[in-house]
Write a structure and sequence with these properties.
2,3-Dihydroxybiphenyl 1,2-Dioxygenase, domain 1; eight-stranded mixed β-sheet; 5 helices
Length: 309
């Protein structure tokens, strides 16, 4: 099935204004009706938790993610998903033509023909001996305009706490055509759908049932310096860093996580590995050294007295 990846995450929250300001400060663009978008149109929708347009929350936690909507390549893919589940479980066709169903561990999923928009932004480039990309007559660092934080480019991935990671994996691989990229033994798999080479758009973490929900979600940035610049600006607005900045082992993507008012974490990430169907998944124990290649000790003051000369 030609599923591209997550297009939209729908949250039902208690304090709508607080969450909307948070996403705006993170770098997403408000486009109306509680929707906040990255540069390609993927994004997050914020509604009050009692809003009747949200799916009912039936899981035994206070988690605020109510629905994950995946973008698919075309109407034929949408139809194949409908046929896969019709007669077995309820498959709703909504007014906008998208599908809605519940996966095997209780998460509400949507599927729509993706509305992602193309953009012409280049990736960050680096110089190395014998491989020069930035010339001395050009800007020294590939970052956003000075004084402005770079914008998130696309919704990258979502991570779930689940009580049965094996059961969750079987649903997405056997029924939706996801492939395992790598695995943390005793924790869960990194998964990608057929429509992308990204190392993962989905990751499961085995936890007790009372914790089930969204652990974090993230948007891709243009490169590691954009992660640093956006994260530094976000921290400067008073938001609390949770983990990072650093770089992961599996996927080798750069990261910086922050706490959110949506009862989960949010991440800036960049430079994720790309894998085709020839890739053989790796397995490793779920320990810190296998999760991060290195971790910066972020600090606000970096010179004697707290100010540079």
């Amino acid at each position: 099935m030609n599923i591209l990846g997550p297009d939209t995450l729908h949250f039902g929250v208690e304090d709508v204004a607080l969450c909307e300001q948070f996403l705006k400060d993170y770098g997403l663009e408000p486009v109306g009706d509680g929707r906040f978008e990255a540069l390609d149109g993927t994004g997050v929708v914020i509604k009050h938790r009692e809003d009747s347009s949200l799916p009912a929350w039936t899981l035994p936690t206070a988690n605020m993610l109510r629905k994950t909507v995946y973008g698919v390549k075309d109407a034929a893919t949408l139809e194949s998903i409908k046929k896969e589940f019709e007669g077995e479980r309820e498959v709703k066709t909504l007014a906008d033509g998208s599908l809605e169903l519940v996966d095997d561990v209780g998460f509400v999923l949507g599927f729509q023909v993706s509305n992602r928009k193309a953009h012409q932004l280049s990736a960050e480039r680096v110089n190395a001996p014998g491989d020069i990309h930035r010339q001395k007559n050009k800007t020294g660092v590939d970052v956003a305009t000075v004084g402005q934080a770079p914008k998130p480019r696309t919704l990258s991935h979502v991570v779930y706490f689940v009580p049965d990671a094996d059961k969750a994996e079987r649903f997405y691989t056997d029924r939706l055509g996801f492939r395992v990229s790598d695995r943390f033994v005793g924790m869960g798999p990194f998964l990608r759908p057929a429509g992308t080479f990204d190392h993962h758009t989905l990751f499961f973490i085995q936890t007790p049932a009372h914790l089930q929900g969204c652990e974090h979600f993230t948007f891709h940035m243009g490169g590691p310096s954009e992660v640093m610049q956006a994260g530094y600006a976000f921290a400067g607005k008073g938001y609390e860093s949770y983990w990072g900045p650093g770089r992961h082992q599996f996927g080798s993507n750069w990261f910086w996580y922050f706490n959110t008012p949506m009862a989960c974490h949010i991440e800036y990430d960049a430079d994720m590995d790309q894998h085709d169907d020839e890739w053989s998944p790796r397995e490793a124990p779920a320990i810190v050294d296998n999760s991060q290649i290195f971790l910066f000790d972020w600090r606000e003051k970096w010179a004697p007295g707290g100010k540079p000369d």
